[in-house]
Amino acid sequence: MFHDDFGIEESDEELPPVITRNSRNSIISAAEKCGWLQKRSKKYHNSWRYRYFALIDNKLYYYKTPSEKIPLGVYNFDQLCFDIQAFPKVNPKIITLIPINSPHRLYLKSSNLSDLQNWASALCSSILQSKGKEHELSSNRTKSKFWKHEIIFSKDMPSIAETGDLLIFKAQTPNSLKSTYTYVSFLIKYPNQGLGVLHANTTEGVEIIMWEKFIETCKFVRTSNIILRKLRVERTDEMLLKLEEFVKKVDKKKYRLSPVELLQRNNDHNISNDLQVYSAELVASALKYLGLMSSEVPVNSLSPKDFSMESNLSLMGARLSGNSSVEFDVD
């Protein structure tokens, strides 16, 4: 170990391997810029650790390795205003990201000055065009360690979510620290009426419920961890007309099992397990109808987990963003 000009311990970690863009991680594959940087870590006594960074959609993700699908953290420039300090005289190989009204600092560096300059340019451009910078959004709205879990508040959903975005629900498994994916929904944004949820249930069948009613009446909403994954796609008039056709086809369509499926199930089978699969089938059918999913994918083979970041669902002409946690209260 040795000390840099800040008196911070330098890691003698080996250089990470060189990789190509051939990554199974959809965020990294589509990133505007990605690569290895060193990040200062308080966890390791302010030493520097290599992390793999990806800049996309005004968000800076970082991973332990590029093969991982779940990031260690994400800085969302649209939710928080950042300043950037690049190449201070005391150490010209460091970039510092500074969220306003927050003591937190993200220190990044690289031995490759040219690459670091490119990172500084890309980060500066992303920050300047972000909603956080435009509206000078403060960290007062965010939780501590906001970069560990990207958060969207429930009351902001109607203004943030767009048609085609997905809601994925996770519930804690009894007597286990593990959580399971229980449900997935397709969102529809109405210009004059707000945000609707294309919802499947065992009584009413398929229906569209407005967001406010959805979070009030669906019991599992408040007992689940809710994840928003935004659909990154060009929303053309043709696509929206196709969606309108799809909604008319499935509206009020009852959830039911065929006689063969019923015979295959045990008496103690939990009907909610079938509803989980049906919710995934409904979302997959919508994506197929819009031409965003291959016709070769059998929709009844998918589960809510297949729409999560843990899976690598392939879409055509579109992609799903990283996870944003939907929360109801601010601590």
UniProtKB/TrEMBL annotation:
InterPro entries: Papain-like_cys_pep_sf, PH-like_dom_sf, PH_domain. Residues 30-128 form the PH domain. It holds the Pfam family PH. This is PH domain-containing protein. It comes from Stentor coeruleus.
